Amino acid sequence: MVRYRILAEANTDIEKIYTHGIETWGLAQARDYLLGLHERFEFLVDNPDIGVNSDELSPGLQRFRYGRHVVFFINTNNETLIVRVLGEEMDFERHL
Question: CB-based burial of residue 44 (10 Å sphere; 0-12 exposed, 13-18 middle, 19+ buried)?
Fold first, then answer.
């Protein structure tokens, strides 16, 4: 069964997104966004070919938008690796 695993840098990204969400929009909306993000991870596991190829940034890397963020991930035979979750306006090349 394929599942997803959040790598350390992506986990830090998610923590920052959640903290910023609480400070900006409140706890309820931050929780909703975080829940939606994890639902998106599961969607990526179930739909492995839906991501946009991002080999120019790193071999095997794909990306998929969620809200104002971009989820960068790699599909392997038995899991989806969540590599980073970056703001849509960030310099992706610099952070990957």
Answer: buried
